[in-house]
Every structure is written in structure tokens, then in C-alpha cells.
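User: Please fill in residues for this 611-position structure.
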């Protein structure tokens, strides 16, 4: 319905432009040709004609309608604040008002003398800067920050980076009416949507120059996040239910079936008290941004054996900075006792020792039962810890006086984890032993039966070709009520995993990532600092860290201005410094030569003239 209303408003605006062109002495028929009409409109409002090309860009063109309305009001001598506001907010109707009101005449903008300096020198450039930034952010590069430790230590919590959207082809916004520079939630609010779904555009992406490759780090819209609880937006609704079901099962001792615990969790989350807030759906382009490593691409056979990834039966090299859980036995409480931080999260108390080896205090705990067949009570004062760290750190930990051993924690084959995809009792898979599973590629036909439908159900029902109903009846799988034995997929699917192998909610938890959810690839880390939650000692002080190295202070200096490659970060500090110095030097000399003001530079940049 929203799309129909929008088309009606566009039609009204075009009819209004028809009359406006007549008043301005231009051929009226030109007002009826999309895009070209706004190209011509530039001559009426004395603005660059190429602005009309911006009207091609979904989302940004809605802002440009307001910009055109603002300048048309000025050209027709409707220059009071209320007129300018109405023209900017309701341009479609205002076009018709200007065109059909016989008392309103066209004057142009060359006679403007008394207009405020703010509008003349600042309003125009600032508004257009927002338009330009929206285009760059939506179709070329967007700034992101790493919020979780899923890719630790490859991309770290507190890394600020730019993501290249051109590489895989930028996606056209599917919900174009949105607050600028916000993703799914309005700034300074907890759960208020930053977008409206009145207008919806079908999925479409521009041509890219590559596809996700094995081993690449990829940014994507979280597929499982199509439904969220607004009071717990850091995970999907489905994951929330699974986690609660797992907790209930643990407290109950596993006396009942997983289906019973799942139903109890569902009733709790959806109960009348709504403990996690309202449950709402999100369109694909407004789902949470996740960043993971693309372990398997469309068409691959994936399998995980004892924590090692096999693609097409070939063992893959572990990422250099991959982290794993280790059971560490020590003489006495070497790493401290279990405690809580100021956010009531469980942490270990020996902050100093943990930070010395860069082990996050939130990813470490003291345990009573290591659940490890090799764990032997060496002495009565032996303490056991569950620590999350890379292999090289584990080797250093083994050499500390008082450490008996550090064994990698591996979930045994055949032990089913109900939180692991496909969340079905017939698939006894876990984080360390998973698969095998074939990832569909576009045009691939896969045989479908009741034994494997749970692997592909979400793809068939939601991702691949619109919304469909998948059910089973006896030995048959029904697709919208009709029996099916095979399916040919319309797009490719990818398997994303975190380098932090035991502390990552990734494809092992919720399944595949469709290509239409892929956003781009991280290319440049421009700033990086520690999170005081994970590094309670060195992650606190900002001013005090300015003179400290990365180990002792808050800032990770070696990560500043670095290019993100498959093999890690490559410093670009020297080239970036040279470029910045050259730009500032040129601008300084040019400003001295021309004696331009700061606002003049804005106007030169966006309008091609000084005043």
C-alpha cells in the first residue's frame, strides 16, 4: 500500500512540475520524463543540472525531493520560514501548489539579496554534504566498529574500520525511508526504529568485481536476525529462545526432551510480561551487521572434525590468530577466583596476569569440574580454569611456573548441542564436530527428503525465492502443499565463522548466509582502542594512554591506519600521513592565494562557484 501511495505522490509532483515548467517558460512536456525533468529543473532554481542524476539513487532521492522543494520555494518568492519548511517536508504536494496557484509567479533566485547568511553560506552545503555522505555510505564505503570478540585477534573489539561495498556489488536500500546515518535504531533510543516500511523496494544489487572467497572476512546482514526482541537486540529472537531452553535444560538436569524445553523457553519469551520486550521483524537490509570469516563458499562441502575445518575433504589452515578454549590446571588459584565486574558479568579476579597475556577477563573462568579425561588431580590445591586464547599464548601459559598443563577443549563427536544448527535431534552436531553439509550455489540442484530438509528448510521457506511453506507428511516433503524431491537454488549460500572458535555466534549456531545478505569486505582499520570491560586495567585511561605503548595503554597503536588483508593488517601509516600533509599543504597555499573563506570551499566543492 505504501508503494502505491508513493507512486501517487510522484505522479502529483510530476503534474505540479508540468505547470511549474510552463510558468518558467520551459517546454512543459519535459516535466513528465523521469530524471530528465530534474536535470532541466536545475536551470529553474539555478543549481547544477547533474543533481538530477542523484534522483536515481533510492533513499537519497527522497532527501533530494526536499532539497528541490526548498529551492523551488525560493525561486517562486515563497521565502518565509514556514514556506521553506513546508516545501522541504512535503515537496510532492508543494510542487502542485506552486504550479496550480495562479497568484504565485516565477521570479528565479538571482534577485535574492536579503536572505540570511546561514542559508546562503551554510544550509545549502550542509544539506548537500548529507546527501553526498549518504551516497558514499550506502553504495561505496561505510564506517563500522567491531562490537564483539568473534574475530579476535584478527579484528578486535574496539577496531574502527571502513567496509568496501563495491567489491561484491552495493545493495540498493530495500527500506529507503530512514533516518540518515542510522541503521535500525534511532540515535539516543533503545528500541525506536530508524526506518519506515511504507515503501519497500525488491532486492537488487549493483554489479561487483568479486564474490566472497574462502578465508575472506565478510560483513553481512545477520540472517537469523529477521526477528528480534527489542529488549535484547544483541542476539536474534531464535537464538534467545535456544539459549533460554539450554539454561532450563541445564537447571532441570536434562530430564525431559529438547522439544519440551524449547516450548517452555518460547512461552517465557512470549509471555504476557514480555521480559525481553516486544518481538518484531526486520527487513533484510536493516538486520544487524555481523562480521565473520567466510570459511566455505557456495558449492562447497563443509565438515568440522575435532575443531579443524575441512572443505571438500581438504583440511584448511587455521587462521593465524584463531582462539580456542583451553582447560588450564594450576598450582593454587593462579588466575584468581570467579567474580563480577561493574556490569555484573562473570570475570576472573587476577586482572594483572590475564592482561599480561592479553586474555580477556570476560572470556575466562575458574571451573570445578574440567570435564577433561586427561585432567588429573595432581595436588589437593590444584585449580582448573577455562581460558580463551590463541595457540601461541597457550604455549606461553604452559611455561608459567605453577601451570601443570593447558589442553585444548574439544567437544567430542556425537555429543549433540541443541543450540547448534540445524537444531534437530537427528543431527548430533556441536561446535567442534559438525557436518558434512553441502552449501548450495546458484543453479545447483539438491535432492530433498525428510532426512535433510531441516538443513535447507530456512533457505526454501524464506531466503531463496520469497516466502513459502515447507512441511512434511509421512515420508514426503511438501513445498506449498505439493510434494518435492529436489530443488534448484536461485542464489549462493556461504558459511561464516569467527576466528574466536569457542566464543562466536556464527553459522554453526544459525546456518548459512544467503548472498543477498552479504554487504561488503572490511578494508581499512583507522583507529583501535581496548574495551575496559575486557581489559579492566589497560583499557581505562584515555589521556594516560597517549604516552603508553599498546601493551600498557588503551590504544592499539600498531593497528592504526592499517589495510585489512587475508593474512592480517598491513600498516599504511606513512602513505596516509604523506597524503594528509600534501592535501593540507595544497589547501593552505591555495587558500592564501585565493583568500577564500571556509564556506566558500563548501560552495566550491558542491556548487562549482564561490558565491
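Assistant: Residues filled in for all 611 positions:
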Amino acid at each position: 500500500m505504501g508503494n502505491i501511495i508513493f507512486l501517487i505522490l510522484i505522479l502529483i509532483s510530476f503534474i505540479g512540475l508540468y505547470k511549474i515548467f510552463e510558468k518558467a517558460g520551459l517546454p512543459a512536456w519535459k516535466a513528465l520524463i523521469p530524471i530528465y525533468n530534474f536535470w532541466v529543473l536545475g536551470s529553474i532554481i539555478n543549481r547544477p543540472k547533474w543533481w538530477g542524476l542523484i534522483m536515481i539513487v533510492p533513499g537519497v532521492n527522497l532527501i533530494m525531493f526536499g532539497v528541490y522543494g526548498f529551492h523551488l520555494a525560493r525561486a517562486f518568492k515563497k521565502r518565509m520560514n514556514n514556506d521553506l519548511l513546508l516545501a522541504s517536508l512535503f515537496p510532492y504536494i508543494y510542487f502542485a501548489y506552486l504550479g496550480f496557484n495562479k497568484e504565485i509567479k516565477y521570479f528565479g533566485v538571482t534577485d535574492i539579496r536579503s536572505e540570511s547568511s546561514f542559508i546562503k553560506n551554510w544550509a545549502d552545503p550542509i544539506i548537500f554534504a548529507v546527501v553526498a555522505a549518504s551516497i558514499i555510505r550506502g553504495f561505496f564505503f561505510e564506517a563500522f566498529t567491531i562490537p564483539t570478540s568473534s574475530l579476535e585477534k584478527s579484528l578486535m573489539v574496539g577496531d574502527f574500520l571502513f567496509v568496501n561495498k563495491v567489491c561484491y556489488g552495493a545493495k540498493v536500500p530495500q527500506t529507503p525511508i530512514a533516518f540518515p546515518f542510522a541503521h535500525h535504531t534511532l540515535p539516543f533510543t533503545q528500541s525506536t526504529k530508524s526506518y519506515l516500511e511504507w515503501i519497500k523496494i525488491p532486492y537488487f544489487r549493483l554489479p561487483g568485481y568479486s564474490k566472497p572467497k574462502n578465508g575472506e572476512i565478510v560483513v553481512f546482514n545477520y540472517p537469523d536476525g529477521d526477528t528480534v526482541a527489542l529488549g535484547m537486540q544483541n542476539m536474534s529472537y531464535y537464538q534467545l529462545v535456544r539459549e533460554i531452553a539450554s539454561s532450563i535444560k541445564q537447571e532441570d538436569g536434562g530430564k525431559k526432551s529438547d522439544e519440551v524445553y524449547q516450548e517452555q523457553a518460547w512461552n517465557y519469551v512470549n509471555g504476557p510480561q514480555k521480559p525481553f520486550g516486544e518481538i518484531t521483524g526486520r527487513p533484510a537490509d536493516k538486520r544487524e551487521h555481523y562480521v565473520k570469516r567466510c570459511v566455505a563458499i557456495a558449492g562447497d562441502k563443509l565438515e568440522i572434525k575435532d575443531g579443524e575445518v575441512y572443505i571438500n575433504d581438504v583440511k584448511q589452515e587455521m587462521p593465524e590468530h584463531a582462539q580456542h578454549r583451553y582447560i588450564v590446571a594450576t598450582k593454587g588459584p593462579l588466575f584468581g577466583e570467579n567474580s563480577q565486574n561493574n556490569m555484573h558479568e562473570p570475570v576472573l579476579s587476577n586482572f594483572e596476569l590475564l592482561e599480561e597475556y592479553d586474555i580477556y577477563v570476560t572470556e575466562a573462568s575458574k571451573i570445578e569440574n574440567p570435564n577433561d579425561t586427561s585432567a588429573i588431580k595432581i595436588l589437593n590445591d590444584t585449580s582448573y580454569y577455562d581460558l580463551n586464547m590463541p595457540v601461541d599464548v597457550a604455549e606461553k601459559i604452559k611455561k608459567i611456573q605453577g601451570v601443570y598443563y593447558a589442553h585444548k577443549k574439544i567437544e567430542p563427536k556425537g555429543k549433540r548441542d541443541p543450540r547448534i544448527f540445524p537444531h534437530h535431534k537427528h543431527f548430533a552436531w556441536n561446535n567442534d564436530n559438525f557436518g558434512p553439509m553441502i552449501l548450495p550455489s546458484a543453479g545447483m540442484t539438491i535432492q530433498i527428503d525428510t532426512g535433510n530438509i531441516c538443513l535447507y528448510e530456512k533457505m526454501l521457506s524464506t531466503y531463496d525465492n520469497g516466502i513459502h511453506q515447507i512441511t512434511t507428511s509421512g515420508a514426503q516433503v511438501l513445498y506449498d502443499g505439493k510434494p518435492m524431491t529436489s530443488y534448484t537454488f536461485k542464489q549462493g549460500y556461504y558459511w561464516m565463522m569467527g576466528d574466536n572458535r569457542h566464543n562466536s555466534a556464527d553459522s554453526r549456531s544459525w546456518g548459512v548466509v544467503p548472498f543477498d545478505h552479504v554487504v561488503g569486505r572490511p578494508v581499512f582499520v583507522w583507529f583501535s582502542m581496548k574495551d575496559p570491560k575486557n581489559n579492566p586495567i589497560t583499557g581505562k585511561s584515555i589521556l594516560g594512554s597517549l604516552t603508553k605503548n599498546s601493551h600498557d595503554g588503551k590504544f592499539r597503536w600498531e593497528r592504526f591506519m592499517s589495510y585489512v588483508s587475508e593474512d592480517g593488517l598491513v600498516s599504511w601509516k606513512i602513505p596516509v600521513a604523506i597524503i594528509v600533509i600534501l592535501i593540507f599543504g595544497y589547501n593552505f597555499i591555495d587558500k592564501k592565494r585565493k583568500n577564500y573563506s571556509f564556506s566558500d570551499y563548501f560552495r566550491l566543492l558542491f556548487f562549482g562557484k564561490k558565491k
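For context: The chain has a mean pLDDT of 87.
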